[in-house]
Amino acid sequence: MAAAALATAATALIAYSVWTPSSGAGGTRTTAHQDTAARPTASRSASPSPSVSDSTSASPSPSASPSPKASASKKSTPKPTTRTDAPAANQPSTAPAGKRLITVVNRTPKTVWAIVTNTAVYPKGRELAPGQSLSVTVANNWGGRIWGRTGCTSTAAGHCATGDCTSVCEGANPPTTLGEFTFDAYAGMDFYDVSMVDGSNLPMWINISHTTTVDPVSSGGCYKGVCTSDVNCPTAMRAVSGGQVVGCKPPCAAFGGDTYCCRGAWAGRENCVPSKWPVDYTQVFKKAAPYAYSYAFDDGATMPCKGACYYRITFGTTGS
To answer: Count of alpha carbons within 13 Å of 105, Cβ hemisphere only?
Structure first.
């Protein structure tokens, strides 16, 4: 019943242009999300004078995941390792009334420049070495996107190997993994998702707290028995910079054409059906992040959170 109610709410929100599941920024983006209704504008969701702090902290302890699905591959179900938490210096654990707390954690072995739109951590980002985290306090009606830039020449405001801004500066050039959020969108609920519609440059998962909503993803990045892993990217979809593979392109960017770009006869929710493509490349992303959007209309990836929820966005794979 809860799933049916969520589906109904999400359908209503899309129909009335209140919320859509992924970005539709302009510039060079080529995904089918350009055909969906517009998300709330930045002016509605921008938070006044957001506070930001960062610190080096230990990663959360992965919780036990549900029984693995029979179809899960070994690559998709790495065994979580045990970690211990350590208090983070100068890291807020709560937000003032009417505010929310967003924490971004880097559990990858590389430096990541974290981007949080409509806050002070934009567009220059915040540099996070492996193991570091930052916290941002935002308004209760905040909405925006979070992603990581890698291979930056100086700050994230300059050129980076992945995650560079589009001409519209509301998203990032493919391939980029995106966290997308619309707070207080409908009936006191937030909607959020991890999107690989524009490909993937970093593994990412999202956890929720400060809510009665049950978190569908474990603190270690496992969802319905399948855990977060690196994308096993086909050669033809690999993004290369400086002779190094830096990400995995979406099918549209890699191959073009109406089929993979969901244009022409393939346009729209009813016609954009990956199982009918010559090769269903959405599974490249779904196997690595089973909770994430793998194509424009992968609506089962929409997550709800009731109330003034806090969010923790982790760059990394299970056990990292």
So the answer is: 24
The whole-number average pLDDT for the span 175-182 is: 96
CB environment 89-107: b (16+ within 10 A), e (fewer): eebeeebeeebbbbbbbbb
Q: Are strands 226-227 and 244-248 parallel, antiparallel or unpaired?
A: unpaired
Pick from 2-11, 119-128, 150-159, 260-269 the range whose average pLDDT is largest: 260-269
C-alpha pair distances (Å), 8 with each of 99, 194, 313:
28, 20, 27
The pLDDT assigned to 154 comes to 77
Length of the chain measured in residues:
320
Alpha carbon 238 to its chain centroid, in Å, reads 19
Element (H, E) at 202: none
Look at residues 82, 66, 319 and name the one whose alpha carbon lies nearest to residue 203: 319
Taking phi over 0 as left and psi of -120 to 50 as alpha, with beta for the rest, 134 belongs to beta
Question: ∠267-271-273 over CA atoms, to 5°?
Answer: 115
What pairs with residue 181 in β-bridges?
144, 192
* Separation of alpha carbons 254 and 252, rounded Å: 5
Which residue, 140, 133, 131, 114, is CA-closest to 50?
140
Residue 194: φ, ψ to 5°: -100, 130
